[in-house]
Amino acid sequence: MPPFVIQERYSGRRNDLSPLMECDELLRGMIASGGPVPNDYAHVNRALRHLGDAVRAGLVSREDVLSYAHDITSRHLEGTMQARALGKKYGYSGDFEIIEAIYTLQIAQEPHLRRWDLYFHSQAAPNAVRNRKAYFHQLLHSHSAGRTKVPLNVLNVASGPARDVREWVLDNPECEVFFDCVDAEIHAIERAKKLCAPFGKRVEFYHRNVLRFLPARGYELVWSAGLFDYLTDRTFVFLLKALMAVTKRGGEVVVGNFSDYNPSRDYMELLGDWVLHHRTRDHLRALALEAGAAADSIEVMWEPEGVNLFLHIRR
Ligand SMILES: C[S@@+](CC[C@H](N)C(=O)[O-])C[C@H]1O[C@@H](n2cnc3c(N)ncnc32)[C@H](O)[C@@H]1O
Predict the structure, then answer these.
(1) Is 47 among the domain residues?
(2) Which of the listed residues 183, 203, 275 should we mutate to test ligand 1's pocket, taking the one with most ligand atoms within 8 A of CB?
(3) Which is a GO BP term held by this UniProt record (predicted)?
Protein backbone atom coordinates (compact mmCIF):
# COMPACT_ATOMS: atom_id res chain seq x y z
CA MET A 1 0.00 0.00 0.00
CA PRO A 2 1.77 3.18 -1.10
CA PRO A 3 1.64 6.22 1.23
CA PHE A 4 -1.09 8.00 -0.72
CA VAL A 5 -3.42 5.12 0.11
CA ILE A 6 -2.91 5.95 3.77
CA GLN A 7 -4.19 9.46 3.02
CA GLU A 8 -7.31 8.05 1.39
CA ARG A 9 -7.96 5.37 3.92
CA TYR A 10 -7.22 7.08 7.17
CA SER A 11 -7.87 10.75 6.58
CA GLY A 12 -11.38 10.66 8.07
CA ARG A 13 -10.87 12.19 11.51
CA ARG A 14 -7.50 13.91 11.64
CA ASN A 15 -5.46 15.58 8.97
CA ASP A 16 -1.81 15.25 10.06
CA LEU A 17 -0.92 11.79 8.93
CA SER A 18 2.78 12.51 8.43
CA PRO A 19 3.97 10.46 11.48
CA LEU A 20 1.98 7.47 10.23
CA MET A 21 3.38 7.93 6.73
CA GLU A 22 6.91 8.28 8.10
CA CYS A 23 6.46 5.02 9.97
CA ASP A 24 4.93 3.32 6.94
CA GLU A 25 7.77 4.39 4.68
CA LEU A 26 10.31 3.02 7.11
CA LEU A 27 8.52 -0.29 7.66
CA ARG A 28 8.00 -0.79 3.93
CA GLY A 29 11.66 -0.14 3.23
CA MET A 30 12.56 -2.80 5.77
CA ILE A 31 9.99 -5.26 4.47
CA ALA A 32 11.53 -4.82 1.00
CA SER A 33 15.04 -5.42 2.33
CA GLY A 34 14.20 -8.54 4.38
CA GLY A 35 13.46 -7.03 7.79
CA PRO A 36 15.23 -4.73 10.24
CA VAL A 37 18.87 -5.25 11.17
CA PRO A 38 20.17 -4.03 14.54
CA ASN A 39 21.27 -0.70 13.06
CA ASP A 40 17.64 -0.08 12.06
CA TYR A 41 16.17 -0.66 15.52
CA ALA A 42 16.72 2.90 16.71
CA HIS A 43 15.06 4.24 13.53
CA VAL A 44 11.97 2.12 14.08
CA ASN A 45 11.80 3.05 17.75
CA ARG A 46 12.15 6.73 16.89
CA ALA A 47 9.40 6.61 14.26
CA LEU A 48 7.12 4.81 16.70
CA ARG A 49 7.87 7.40 19.36
CA HIS A 50 6.89 10.17 16.90
CA LEU A 51 3.73 8.31 16.10
CA GLY A 52 2.97 7.80 19.79
CA ASP A 53 3.50 11.51 20.45
CA ALA A 54 1.12 12.36 17.59
CA VAL A 55 -1.52 10.01 19.01
CA ARG A 56 -1.10 11.49 22.50
CA ALA A 57 -1.38 15.00 21.05
CA GLY A 58 -4.63 14.01 19.31
CA LEU A 59 -3.16 14.56 15.82
CA VAL A 60 -3.59 10.97 14.68
CA SER A 61 -6.29 8.69 15.99
CA ARG A 62 -5.34 5.46 17.75
CA GLU A 63 -7.97 3.62 15.70
CA ASP A 64 -6.31 4.71 12.45
CA VAL A 65 -2.94 3.53 13.67
CA LEU A 66 -4.33 0.18 14.78
CA SER A 67 -6.16 -0.26 11.52
CA TYR A 68 -2.85 0.43 9.74
CA ALA A 69 -1.03 -2.04 12.04
CA HIS A 70 -3.53 -4.77 11.17
CA ASP A 71 -3.17 -4.01 7.43
CA ILE A 72 0.60 -4.11 7.26
CA THR A 73 0.89 -7.05 9.61
CA SER A 74 -1.61 -9.24 7.79
CA ARG A 75 -0.08 -8.41 4.40
CA HIS A 76 3.58 -8.86 5.26
CA LEU A 77 4.27 -10.15 8.75
CA GLU A 78 1.97 -13.16 9.26
CA GLY A 79 3.73 -15.72 11.46
CA THR A 80 5.89 -13.23 13.33
CA MET A 81 5.72 -12.51 17.06
CA GLN A 82 4.16 -9.18 16.16
CA ALA A 83 1.35 -10.87 14.21
CA ARG A 84 0.78 -13.36 17.00
CA ALA A 85 0.58 -10.59 19.61
CA LEU A 86 -1.79 -8.53 17.48
CA GLY A 87 -3.87 -11.60 16.56
CA LYS A 88 -4.91 -12.23 20.21
CA LYS A 89 -5.63 -15.91 19.59
CA TYR A 90 -7.27 -16.33 22.99
CA GLY A 91 -9.04 -12.97 22.88
CA TYR A 92 -6.62 -10.83 24.86
CA SER A 93 -3.02 -9.59 24.80
CA GLY A 94 -0.26 -11.47 26.58
CA ASP A 95 -1.74 -14.96 26.55
CA PHE A 96 0.31 -17.94 27.75
CA GLU A 97 1.48 -18.81 24.21
CA ILE A 98 2.97 -15.38 23.61
CA ILE A 99 4.58 -15.37 27.03
CA GLU A 100 5.97 -18.84 26.38
CA ALA A 101 7.28 -17.67 22.98
CA ILE A 102 8.99 -14.74 24.70
CA TYR A 103 10.57 -16.98 27.35
CA THR A 104 11.83 -19.41 24.75
CA LEU A 105 12.86 -16.74 22.21
CA GLN A 106 10.78 -18.24 19.40
CA ILE A 107 11.84 -16.98 15.98
CA ALA A 108 10.13 -17.58 12.63
CA GLN A 109 12.09 -19.91 10.33
CA GLU A 110 11.20 -18.03 7.13
CA PRO A 111 14.16 -15.82 6.18
CA HIS A 112 11.97 -12.76 5.43
CA LEU A 113 10.33 -12.97 8.89
CA ARG A 114 13.29 -13.91 11.09
CA ARG A 115 14.65 -10.39 11.45
CA TRP A 116 11.27 -9.07 12.60
CA ASP A 117 11.26 -11.57 15.44
CA LEU A 118 14.84 -10.72 16.35
CA TYR A 119 13.77 -7.09 16.56
CA PHE A 120 10.71 -8.03 18.67
CA HIS A 121 12.79 -10.00 21.17
CA SER A 122 15.48 -7.31 21.39
CA GLN A 123 13.09 -4.81 22.92
CA ALA A 124 12.97 -3.78 26.55
CA ALA A 125 9.54 -5.29 27.30
CA PRO A 126 10.30 -8.91 26.22
CA ASN A 127 13.63 -8.63 28.03
CA ALA A 128 11.77 -7.53 31.15
CA VAL A 129 9.44 -10.54 30.84
CA ARG A 130 12.43 -12.88 30.62
CA ASN A 131 14.05 -11.08 33.54
CA ARG A 132 11.00 -11.54 35.71
CA LYS A 133 11.39 -15.29 35.46
CA ALA A 134 14.88 -14.90 36.90
CA TYR A 135 13.46 -12.55 39.53
CA PHE A 136 10.94 -15.19 40.61
CA HIS A 137 13.70 -17.81 40.75
CA GLN A 138 15.76 -15.52 42.96
CA LEU A 139 12.78 -15.10 45.30
CA LEU A 140 12.32 -18.86 45.46
CA HIS A 141 15.99 -19.25 46.35
CA SER A 142 15.83 -16.71 49.13
CA HIS A 143 12.59 -18.08 50.59
CA SER A 144 13.70 -21.70 50.46
CA ALA A 145 17.23 -21.10 51.76
CA GLY A 146 17.76 -22.78 55.13
CA ARG A 147 14.39 -24.61 55.12
CA THR A 148 15.79 -28.10 55.21
CA LYS A 149 12.83 -30.01 56.62
CA VAL A 150 9.92 -27.54 56.43
CA PRO A 151 8.39 -27.30 52.94
CA LEU A 152 7.82 -23.94 51.28
CA ASN A 153 4.30 -23.32 49.95
CA VAL A 154 4.03 -20.97 47.01
CA LEU A 155 0.92 -19.59 45.33
CA ASN A 156 1.45 -18.60 41.68
CA VAL A 157 -1.42 -16.33 40.63
CA ALA A 158 -2.19 -16.24 36.86
CA SER A 159 0.54 -18.78 36.28
CA GLY A 160 0.25 -18.94 32.46
CA PRO A 161 2.56 -21.63 31.02
CA ALA A 162 4.30 -22.10 34.43
CA ARG A 163 7.60 -22.36 32.62
CA ASP A 164 9.17 -20.43 35.50
CA VAL A 165 7.97 -23.15 37.91
CA ARG A 166 9.19 -25.95 35.64
CA GLU A 167 12.68 -24.51 35.26
CA TRP A 168 13.09 -23.87 38.96
CA VAL A 169 11.98 -27.33 40.09
CA LEU A 170 14.15 -29.04 37.46
CA ASP A 171 17.14 -26.99 38.63
CA ASN A 172 16.38 -27.50 42.34
CA PRO A 173 15.00 -31.04 42.66
CA GLU A 174 16.16 -31.38 46.25
CA CYS A 175 14.20 -28.33 47.52
CA GLU A 176 10.91 -29.05 49.28
CA VAL A 177 8.79 -26.47 47.49
CA PHE A 178 5.11 -26.92 46.61
CA PHE A 179 3.26 -24.75 44.16
CA ASP A 180 -0.41 -23.97 43.76
CA CYS A 181 -0.94 -22.43 40.31
CA VAL A 182 -4.16 -20.69 39.30
CA ASP A 183 -5.08 -19.53 35.81
CA ALA A 184 -8.40 -18.68 34.17
CA GLU A 185 -7.37 -19.99 30.74
CA ILE A 186 -7.88 -23.73 30.28
CA HIS A 187 -5.29 -23.90 27.47
CA ALA A 188 -2.73 -22.30 29.77
CA ILE A 189 -3.51 -24.85 32.48
CA GLU A 190 -3.21 -27.74 30.01
CA ARG A 191 0.10 -26.45 28.68
CA ALA A 192 1.44 -25.83 32.19
CA LYS A 193 0.38 -29.33 33.34
CA LYS A 194 2.37 -30.83 30.48
CA LEU A 195 5.43 -28.72 31.28
CA CYS A 196 5.24 -29.67 34.96
CA ALA A 197 4.35 -33.36 34.42
CA PRO A 198 7.82 -34.65 35.40
CA PHE A 199 7.23 -33.46 38.98
CA GLY A 200 3.42 -33.46 39.10
CA LYS A 201 3.28 -34.07 42.87
CA ARG A 202 4.92 -30.75 43.54
CA VAL A 203 2.38 -28.65 41.62
CA GLU A 204 -1.38 -28.36 41.95
CA PHE A 205 -3.28 -26.58 39.17
CA TYR A 206 -6.55 -24.71 39.52
CA HIS A 207 -8.50 -23.60 36.48
CA ARG A 208 -10.18 -20.61 38.10
CA ASN A 209 -10.68 -16.85 37.91
CA VAL A 210 -8.51 -15.47 40.73
CA LEU A 211 -10.99 -12.64 41.28
CA ARG A 212 -13.49 -15.28 42.44
CA PHE A 213 -11.37 -18.05 43.87
CA LEU A 214 -7.99 -18.58 45.52
CA PRO A 215 -6.82 -21.78 47.16
CA ALA A 216 -6.30 -20.82 50.78
CA ARG A 217 -4.06 -23.31 52.46
CA GLY A 218 -1.70 -20.53 53.54
CA TYR A 219 1.51 -19.59 51.73
CA GLU A 220 4.97 -18.36 52.59
CA LEU A 221 5.25 -16.77 49.14
CA VAL A 222 2.49 -15.46 46.89
CA TRP A 223 3.68 -14.44 43.42
CA SER A 224 1.87 -12.85 40.51
CA ALA A 225 3.48 -11.52 37.33
CA GLY A 226 1.76 -10.35 34.18
CA LEU A 227 -1.69 -9.93 35.71
CA PHE A 228 -1.87 -6.80 37.83
CA ASP A 229 -0.90 -4.53 34.93
CA TYR A 230 -4.18 -5.54 33.26
CA LEU A 231 -6.27 -4.53 36.29
CA THR A 232 -7.85 -1.20 37.15
CA ASP A 233 -6.79 0.34 40.47
CA ARG A 234 -9.99 -0.85 42.11
CA THR A 235 -9.55 -4.46 41.05
CA PHE A 236 -5.83 -4.27 41.86
CA VAL A 237 -6.62 -3.37 45.47
CA PHE A 238 -9.38 -5.99 45.72
CA LEU A 239 -7.08 -8.79 44.51
CA LEU A 240 -4.10 -7.61 46.53
CA LYS A 241 -6.20 -7.76 49.70
CA ALA A 242 -7.20 -11.33 48.83
CA LEU A 243 -3.55 -12.32 48.24
CA MET A 244 -2.48 -10.77 51.53
CA ALA A 245 -5.21 -12.76 53.29
CA VAL A 246 -3.83 -16.12 52.10
CA THR A 247 -0.20 -15.26 52.97
CA LYS A 248 1.13 -16.62 56.27
CA ARG A 249 2.58 -14.36 58.93
CA GLY A 250 6.25 -13.86 58.09
CA GLY A 251 5.51 -14.60 54.41
CA GLU A 252 5.56 -12.29 51.42
CA VAL A 253 3.32 -11.20 48.55
CA VAL A 254 5.17 -10.12 45.40
CA VAL A 255 3.24 -8.61 42.53
CA GLY A 256 4.72 -7.54 39.19
CA ASN A 257 3.54 -4.47 37.27
CA PHE A 258 5.06 -2.72 34.26
CA SER A 259 6.50 0.65 35.22
CA ASP A 260 5.81 4.03 33.61
CA TYR A 261 9.33 3.67 32.18
CA ASN A 262 8.75 1.30 29.26
CA PRO A 263 10.65 2.14 26.06
CA SER A 264 8.58 -0.50 24.22
CA ARG A 265 5.26 1.06 25.13
CA ASP A 266 4.55 2.72 21.77
CA TYR A 267 5.46 -0.45 19.91
CA MET A 268 3.21 -2.52 22.17
CA GLU A 269 0.25 -0.17 22.06
CA LEU A 270 0.39 0.98 18.44
CA LEU A 271 1.64 -2.07 16.54
CA GLY A 272 0.51 -4.75 19.00
CA ASP A 273 -2.67 -3.27 20.49
CA TRP A 274 -1.23 -4.45 23.81
CA VAL A 275 -2.35 -1.95 26.44
CA LEU A 276 -1.34 -2.19 30.08
CA HIS A 277 -1.78 -0.10 33.21
CA HIS A 278 1.78 1.16 33.58
CA ARG A 279 2.36 2.27 37.18
CA THR A 280 5.01 4.20 39.06
CA ARG A 281 6.65 3.02 42.28
CA ASP A 282 4.65 5.61 44.24
CA HIS A 283 1.42 4.47 42.65
CA LEU A 284 2.11 0.84 43.59
CA ARG A 285 2.95 1.86 47.12
CA ALA A 286 -0.28 3.88 47.40
CA LEU A 287 -2.34 0.91 46.19
CA ALA A 288 -0.63 -1.36 48.71
CA LEU A 289 -1.52 1.07 51.50
CA GLU A 290 -5.10 1.16 50.24
CA ALA A 291 -5.18 -2.64 50.41
CA GLY A 292 -4.25 -2.44 54.08
CA ALA A 293 -0.50 -3.11 53.98
CA ALA A 294 1.54 -1.46 56.74
CA ALA A 295 3.80 1.29 55.38
CA ASP A 296 6.96 -0.38 56.68
CA SER A 297 6.03 -3.73 55.08
CA ILE A 298 6.08 -2.33 51.53
CA GLU A 299 9.00 -2.26 49.13
CA VAL A 300 9.12 -1.73 45.36
CA MET A 301 11.94 -3.35 43.39
CA TRP A 302 12.63 -3.94 39.66
CA GLU A 303 14.43 -6.23 37.22
CA PRO A 304 17.55 -5.09 35.33
CA GLU A 305 15.63 -3.40 32.47
CA GLY A 306 13.74 -1.26 35.01
CA VAL A 307 10.54 -2.00 33.07
CA ASN A 308 8.91 -4.56 35.36
CA LEU A 309 8.44 -3.32 38.91
CA PHE A 310 7.75 -5.68 41.80
CA LEU A 311 5.64 -4.67 44.76
CA HIS A 312 6.72 -6.62 47.86
CA ILE A 313 4.54 -6.79 50.95
CA ARG A 314 5.80 -8.55 54.05
CA ARG A 315 3.15 -10.12 56.27
C1 LIG B 1 0.80 -12.34 30.73
S2 LIG B 1 0.34 -13.96 31.25
C3 LIG B 1 1.45 -14.18 32.61
C4 LIG B 1 1.78 -15.61 32.87
C5 LIG B 1 2.81 -15.89 33.97
N6 LIG B 1 2.47 -15.29 35.22
C7 LIG B 1 4.18 -15.42 33.54
O8 LIG B 1 4.60 -14.34 33.94
O9 LIG B 1 4.81 -16.17 32.81
C10 LIG B 1 -1.18 -13.62 32.02
C11 LIG B 1 -1.96 -14.85 32.48
O12 LIG B 1 -3.01 -14.38 33.32
C13 LIG B 1 -4.12 -15.22 33.15
N14 LIG B 1 -5.29 -14.49 33.69
C15 LIG B 1 -5.80 -13.31 33.25
N16 LIG B 1 -6.85 -12.95 34.03
C17 LIG B 1 -6.98 -13.92 34.98
C18 LIG B 1 -7.88 -14.11 36.06
N19 LIG B 1 -8.84 -13.22 36.33
N20 LIG B 1 -7.75 -15.22 36.83
C21 LIG B 1 -6.77 -16.12 36.57
N22 LIG B 1 -5.89 -15.99 35.55
C23 LIG B 1 -5.99 -14.90 34.76
C24 LIG B 1 -4.14 -15.46 31.65
O25 LIG B 1 -4.90 -16.59 31.32
C26 LIG B 1 -2.64 -15.62 31.37
O27 LIG B 1 -2.26 -16.98 31.40
Answers:
(1) yes
(2) 183
(3) methylation
Query: Within a domain: residue 183?
Result: yes
How confident is the model at residue 148, as a pLDDT?
Answer: 73
Residue 73: predicted pLDDT: 96
Distance CA 215, CA 217 (A): 6
Q: Are 238 and 267 in contact (CB under 8 A)?
A: no
Cβ(82)–Cβ(271) below 8 Å? yes
Per-residue pLDDT at 103 exceeds 90: yes
Cα(313)–Cα(295) distance, integer angstroms: 9
- CATH number, residue 134: 3.40.50.150
Domain around 31: 1-76
Check residue 182 and give its pLDDT.
Answer: 98
160 lines ligand 1 (CB under 6 A): yes
Q: Is residue 94 part of a domain?
A: no
- 38 with 136, same domain? no
CB distance 211 to ligand 1 below 6 Å: yes
Same domain, 20 and 150: no
Whether residue 306 is predicted with pLDDT greater than 50 in this model: the reply is yes
Q: What is the length of the chain?
A: 315
pLDDT > 90? residue 2: no
Whether 165 is in the pocket of ligand 1, judged by its Cβ within 6 Å, is: no
Segment 176-204, tens digit of pLDDT:
999 999 999 999 999 999 999 999 899 99
Q: How many domains, in total, are found in the chain?
A: 2
Q: Which among 159, 227, 274 is the best mutation to test ligand 1's pocket, defined by most ligand atoms within 8 Å of the CB?
A: 227
> How far apart, in Å, are the Cα atoms of 249 and each of 176, 221, 225, 253?
19, 10, 22, 11
Give pLDDT, residue 9: 57
